[in-house]
Amino acid sequence: MTENEIRLTQFAHGAGCGCKIAPMVLDEILEGNKSAFFPNLLVGNDKRDDAAVLLLNADDALISTTDFFTPIVDDAYLFGKIAAANALSDVYAMGGRPTLALAILGWPVEKLPASLANQVIKGAIEVCRDAGIPLAGGHSIDAVEPFFGLSVNGIVKQQHLKRNDSPNEGDYLFITKPIGIGILTTAAKRDLLLQEDEVSLHKVITKLNSLGAALGQFESVTAMTDVTGFGLAGHLLEMLGENELSAEIYADKIPLLPNLEYYMNKFIVPDASYRNWKAYHEQIEINPSVNGTHMFHILPDPQTNGGLMFTVKPEALQEMIDYLKSNNLEDFSTPIGRIISKKEKRIIINNSIDVN
């Protein structure tokens, strides 16, 4: 088999962020193993946030994260770009700016040529260069299946640090990328992805979430995270956290990748969607006027390097809409929902309302 004939996705049981360990299993793993008390540790593994944060001095904090996964595409160079962008996203989601990255590589050296791993690293270097940071080193092992990602450090002013669990009642909810990455990458793995959709998918999945560093400077942004393996609903539940809050989502305002309905009608569903849905469907209420089957496809769909999801104070709504439009994000300048007082269900899916 030549290098061009090798399909990386066939060498892994999972794909992208869809290979994350299920939330309930992760809770069991971490039980009794939460971060010990350190006065300068602002965010540790006792929180379900995107990265750890350590206060360095009165003004500055260090953001540290690691993220890696098995191939989500067959092209090695593209796989490296996606994995790198996804790892950098955790820093941006905290309102920070990446400063340094190290590579994490697992490679089945007897099954796959080293030249493909070389292409993975090249893709990652390009994305790191776009982010303005070096890929300065890393660690590799001979593994049963391929995986790749980065360990990333970043910096943020303490006053600009954004948490994922701090929204307020009345805040509006935005997202900066379309949903559907899990569905389309599953279609690609099954040789069902239309050629016309491949370009739009790759553009979205490799795009840096660098907007997060700018959003961190908005006092009106009350909470922020990125949407990855647990899907839109899963990461929204993390955002609601232990707060006495629920979220109303406007079904027809959720941005979707082009032609997504075509794949939904063929019932192309990532395995991780079933796992996600099982974990949290009892916390979701879907209005009878909303297409429940479509919501099953959309809400738990695992994203890889998905968009930023953030909440904005109501008095700053128009300011944020104008800001997003001025930064070529007009398609994402309409809120997809709002934070409300806690109801019987944590997420309520309704038809949209006029927010302007």
Summarize the structure.
The chain has 356 residues and is an alpha+beta fold. It has helices spanning 23-30, 76-92, 114-130, 181-189, 195-206, 211-215, 231-240, 260-265, 271-280, 292-298, 317-326; strands at 41-43, 52-55, 60-69, 97-107, 135-142, 147-157, 172-175, 221-226, 245-250, 284-286, 308-312, 337-341, 347-350.
Overview of this protein structure:
It is built from 11 helices and 13 strands. The chain has helices at residues 23-30, 76-92, 114-130, 181-189, 195-206, 211-215, 231-240, 260-265, 271-280, 292-298, 317-326; strands at residues 41-43, 52-55, 60-69, 97-107, 135-142, 147-157, 172-175, 221-226, 245-250, 284-286, 308-312, 337-341, 347-350. The protein folds into 2 domains: 3-160, PurM-like, N-terminal domain (60s Ribosomal Protein L30, Chain: A); 172-350, Phosphoribosyl-aminoimidazole Synthetase, Chain A, domain 2 (Alpha-Beta Complex). With 356 residues, it is an alpha+beta fold. Strand 1 (41-43) and strand 2 (52-55) form a beta hairpin.
